[in-house]
Amino acid sequence: MTDEKFTRQRLLDVQTLTPSLFTLRTSRDQGFRFNAGQFARLGVTKADGSVVWRAYSMVSSPHDEFLEFFSIVVPGGEFTSELARLQVGDELLIDRQAFGYLTLDRFADGRDLWMLATGTGVAPFLSILQGFEVWERFERIFLVYSAREGKELAYRELIAGLEQRDYLAPFAGKLRFIPTVSRERYPGALQGRITTLIENGELERAAGVPLEPEHSRVMICGNPAMIDDTRQLLKAREMQLSLSRRPGQVAVENYW
């Protein structure tokens, strides 16, 4: 890969949330453009001079001067083990082009937006929620964020503070945050996997709104098994994947 395809950025900050989760913030090239919900390819140079690349969705807004990413630590993983060596000020490579289709333009209409995330799959939704468009387009927004344990529910302060931001103040009351925890009881969270909570109706009871094709638009980001299972549940409700040739109610991004 030549220098023309990527820029050299600096690591500005790393925050360890749990032994298996961390956030990283980098500088941003002035020419790097992305739509909220997209991802970038990050490269780390190994000791032998080779580069390891991995894709990460932006947590940060397209309007931020920095880029922020949310990562899981993969034991023995080639990329995260290299990343763990880096210090603030060290170099990362970032592709000049952003990728991905988990963006609001996948939907032509809709009243209620459901964002279903597992683990680090919450990242693109945080980018979308820091923008203006989603609040203006939808009457109600449901952020459903699933983790195995309560301590893995990251960015709660950011989520809680969204509607306090001056530019989002007119939309206060539109967002409903519904955390779910699968392996323990946790205060303020539903217990169980997202798929189970859809099947038994508990998710819709918590939201007070049905998941149905006329008004609901659903974005899903997480591990492939969760996405496949959730898509099947929604398909049974006549909710289809939204394609350029066939508008639908569902948009997905695999996070693995």
TrEMBL record:
Q: Which UniProt keywords apply?
A: Nucleotide-binding
Catalytic reaction(s) noted:
2 reduced [2Fe-2S]-[ferredoxin] + NADP(+) + H(+) = 2 oxidized [2Fe-2S]-[ferredoxin] + NADPH
Q: Any idea where the FAD-binding FR-type domain is?
A: 4-105
- Entry annotated with the keyword Nucleotide-binding: yes
Q: What is its EC number?
A: 1.18.1.2
Instruction: Give the family per the record.
Output: Belongs to the ferredoxin--NADP reductase type 1 family.
What is the recorded name of this protein?
ferredoxin--NADP(+) reductase
> What organism does the record attribute this protein to?
Pseudomonas typographi
